[in-house]
Amino acid sequence: MSIVERLRAAGCVFAEDEARLLTAAADTPAGLAALVERRVAGEPLEHLLGWAEFCGLRIAVDPGVFVPRRRTALLVREAVALLAGRAAPATVVDLCCGSGALAAAVAAAVGPVTLHATDVDPAAVRCARRNLAGAGGQVHEGDLDAPLPPGLRGRVDVLVANVPYVPTAELPLMPPEARDHEPRAALDGGGDGLDVLRRVATAAPAWLAPGGHLLVETSARQAAQAAEAFAAAGLAARVVTDDDLGATAVVGARGQSPSPAVGAAGEEL
Ligand SMILES: C[S@@+](CC[C@H](N)C(=O)[O-])C[C@H]1O[C@@H](n2cnc3c(N)ncnc32)[C@H](O)[C@@H]1O
Questions:
Q1: 143: left (phi over 0), alpha (psi -120 to 50) or beta
Q2: pLDDT in tens, 36-46
Q3: Ligand 1 center to residue 119 CA distance, Å?
Q4: What is d(CA 44, CA 183) in angstroms, rounded to the nearest whole number?
Q5: Is the CB of 100 under 6 A from ligand 1?
Q6: What is the pLDDT of residues 92-104, one digit of tens each?
Q7: What span, in angstroms and rounded, lies between the C-alpha atoms of 45 and 25?
Q8: Are 64 and 123 in contact (CB under 8 A)?
Q9: CB 160 within 8 A of CB 218
Q10: Which residues make Cβ contacts (< 8 Å) with residue 112, sequence separation at least 6?
Q11: Does any ligand 1 atom lie closer than 6 A to the CB of residue 186?
């Protein structure tokens, strides 16, 4: 059986492309055979290659680190639109950064930025440090916003977070590539999938500059509740979707008042 046939038989939809990429990644025929074996056994292609394509960038992704998804380009697009036309370099924070793909793509699109990212997983932090070094990004290890430098309070123009948002009971339904090869902490969003999102929404206003924005990916099903969590934290929330990407996000604006204020749902403060 050819490599393409083996990959196709294992359920790889883009078997020709994958065969080409694995062949290019292997140093020797034995190395190629080993890569094909691992792919057929279900390892994500990106972990085998050591990189993922995201928003036109090649992002390093180590085994055990969440593979950036195509749909997350919606968060990048919205963040870039909010930052367009600024005179001074923006301050951007990526919470739950994983490989740092989101922050890297925003920085690549908007030019010089002050960039901070955090993740609780040391493997993700190592990976993000490599991916964000070129943009001068600082990557901190720890729980959500806890490791951010206090001097950033009230100064962040855009805070992006692709948090884990799969409801715990649905984890067993995920494709084996995710279930078996990505850390549970990268996927599990708690009972209704919104536990981490709520914590981020609560923490964000203290970090945002007046007029700054929080952008979080969610699912279509969770969007209304996610927007409510933003509103409860005092952010004026709107839901954005992209059918081609199959993506949904909530964008929340902090008002112009000097300290974070809490207002009614949907009210721009
Ligand atoms: C869905 S992945 C997204 C990774 C990356 N932002 C992306 O889009 O490719 C979620 C990430 O959140 C991290 N994470 C989960 N809980 C966290 C917490 N309490 N504090 C910081 N990071 C956390 C995981 O380690 C994982 O890297």
A1: beta
A2: 999 999 999 99
A3: 6
A4: 13
A5: no
A6: 999 999 999 999 9
A7: 11
A8: yes
A9: no
A10: 89, 136
A11: yes
